[in-house]
Amino acid sequence: MEHLFTHIKWKVPDWSLRNKTRLIKWKKIDYENPTLSIKEEVMCFLEGGIIILLFSYFFYRSFLAILILSPGLWLYRKQKQKKLRKKRREKLEEEFKETLLSIQTNLQSGYSIENAFVESYKYVTGIYGDSCDMAKELLWIKRGLQNGNTLEQMLLDLGKRCPKSALEDFADIYSIVCKTGGDWNDIIGKIVTNVITRIEMQEEINILIHGKKTESRVMCIIPFVILYYMDATSKGYFDVMYHNMIGIGIMTLCMTAYILAFLMVEKMTEII
To answer: How many domains are contained in the chain?
Structure first.
């Protein structure tokens, strides 16, 4: 029997190699310059196309105007990408706030700082699911730790990919604490309190601004509603403004003023 077992080759799976391979395959998210998904690209194209059709009809009543205004699709895509980036960063910070609360609880339960991060993955996925960005980042940190990377390196990398955010602030503070040392429970508790306060203040500002943004969206639609109403009730009222140089010039000025007013409102309601 002993002779039989000596000839058996037990194959032990190389978990570290498998984790490393899966870690390499997962593409890190650049929150500063995110790429649009196929669904977002299609929606962006449809929304931009509808806007161009509206502008072509109300300002020029010409199919040629559709071709002339078509480069606006690229500008609309850039604006949409900027909005999606901001929305995604806000969602990530909201998820990060819950992660910090979980980490604080884990530290108080006796976990090390590394294990506190790893264990917070279960808490975050329980609230937001495993498809949220923070869950992916925590899984990335977990796999990085399994492959010999330090938590400091992983957090600094995350902060670099999401600059000017609570994540970058936390990563910088954590890096300083790693070099100076100290009581982790006390330090992390203060960091968590400060970061959560900042995030909650940002959320309150977003709520206050949201009402103004809704008002601005309504004001942007009203001119088209008025034009449609007047055109429907008084046939030919605006015919003098189309298919002649003077009318085209006036309509172009009106369209330019409308776009500038829209961009000014967007800038005023934008939170940096």
So the answer is: 1
CA angle (130, 131, 134) in 5-degree steps: 80
Q: DSSP secondary-structure letter at 248?
A: H
Segments forming the whole domain that contains residue 165 = 36-268
The reply to whether 7 falls in a domain is no
In-domain check, residue 28: no
User: Which residue in 184, 10, 12 sits closest to 114, CA to CA?
Assistant: 184
Over residues 204-257, the pLDDT tens digits come to 887 878 777 788 888 888 888 888 888 888 887 888 888 889 989 999 999 999
171 assigned to some structural domain: yes
Q: Would the pTM of this model clear 0.85, i.e. be above it?
A: no
For the chain, what's the residue count?
A: 272
The H or E element that residue 34 is part of is none
Q: What's residue 182's pLDDT?
A: 67
pLDDT, tens digit, 9 for 90 and up, residues 174-207: 888 888 776 767 777 777 788 778 778 877 887 8
Per-residue model confidence (pLDDT) at position 14: 40
- Cβ proximity of 6 and 135 under 8 Å: no
In-domain check, residue 235: yes
